[in-house]
Amino acid sequence: MSRTASVTTGPYAPPVPSRTLTAVSADGARLHVEVHGPDDAPPVVLSHGWTCSTAFWAAQIRELATDHRVIAYDQRGHGRSPASPACTAEALADDLEAVLAETLAPGEKAVVVGHSMGGMTVMAAAGRPRFREHAAAVLLCSTGSSRLVAESRVVPLRAGRVRTWITGRVLGSRAPLGPVTPVAKRVLKYATMGAGSAPHRVEACARIVHACPRAVRHAWSAVLAALDLDHGVRQLQPPTAVLHGASDRLTPPVHARALAAALPNCLGLTELPGIGHMTPIEAPELVTGRIRELVDTHVTGAGPVRIKEGA
Questions:
Q1: Which of 14, 98, 174, 310 could pair with 55 as two cysteines, CB 3.0-4.6 Å apart?
Q2: What is the pLDDT of residues 3-46, one digit of tens each?
Q3: Predicted structure pTM score
């Protein structure tokens, strides 16, 4: 994704990285990686969701890079990472391992943050040796491990076969999203954000999502529709915090509650009232604050976890 596809001013304008790298995954897929902040600072690894890119993390990168080494990468086919015919949960796990290998020293510990499909990436990688070597703690934002289409509330119908069928067709559509118009922004806001989301935040999300190639969007929608990573949740050993928007229609809070119940080392579930699916953009200070808490407690040892239920 070119930077002109994102907003160009304000907190959601993508920061310029200290350096860029290319991580090569197990199947040869090449991944665009950005490193922000001091090289000797505690590391944070950010994995974005479906139809997004490194630009999605602009607010977190801008705040954390003052005293953290922030590593963000584009999932295959997204942003500046070329598309690949391999679209599977295993490929996502391979890609995360490749990024960790490229950016962290042997044994170096980081906080790993995943939003939506990025959280699913973490679950898919949970049993991998390299992930376990490097993950000191995890933050899962607005994500789920299975039944994503069946539980989605994007289509305003009663749960059941009809809603599931229609939802699958809507989320898996091959239709182009087109330019970012007022109508397009209203549709995206309804589907993915809270009703009170500020216009500049809706604009940022729309520009990022609309920049995703429709073939990539369609290919990964099929993967998400069939996803079952419940086993990955049970294998996720690092201390893990769960953060979710209470108004999330795309992955409703039932997913977050299931994660919190199944995780072997859950630090707590925080549900954010009035917030939808795009938590890092809708509630940037809260997401950044959770990341800092995890780094302070599990990487630098500077302070206790201060996660509150319902904060």
A1: 14
A2: 346 777 777 889 999 999 999 999 999 999 999 999 999 999 99
A3: 0.94
User: What per-residue confidence (pLDDT) applies to 4?
Assistant: 42
- Going by their DSSP bridges, the two strands 110-115 and 43-47 should be labelled as parallel
Q: Which residues does residue 32 pair with via DSSP β-bridges, in sequence order?
A: 22
Tokens of 72: 């963000």
The position carrying tokens 């630009």 is 55
Task: Tell me the C-alpha distance between 267 and 243, whole Å.
Answer: 10
> What does the H/E/C string look like for the chain?
CCHHHCCCCCCCCCCCCCEEEEEECCCCCEEEEEEECCCCCCEEEEECCCCCCHHHHHHHHHHHCCCCEEEEECCCCCCCCCCCCCCCHHHHHHHHHHHHHHHCCCCCCEEEEEECHHHHHHHHHCCCHHHHHHEEEEEEECCCCECHHHHCCCCCCCCCHHHHHHHHHHHCCCCCCCCCCHHHHHHHHHHHCCCCCCHHHHHHHHHHHHCCCHHHHHHHHHHHHCCECHHHHHHCCCCEEEEEECCCCCCCHHHHHHHHHHCCCEEEEEEECCCCCCHHHHCHHHHHHHHHHHHHHHCCCCCCCCCCCCC
pLDDT value at 302 more than 70: no
The Cα–Cα gap between 112 and 3 comes to 24
**Percent of all residues in the chain with a pLDDT value above 70, rounded to a whole number:** 95
Cβ proximity of 267 and 153 under 8 Å: no
Instruction: Single out the residue of 104, 93, 124 nearest to residue 27, CA to CA.
Output: 93
Confidence band, pLDDT 50/70/90 cuts, at residue 206: very high
How is residue 247 written in tokens? 């108004």
Q: How close are the terminal C-alpha atoms of the chain, in Å?
A: 34
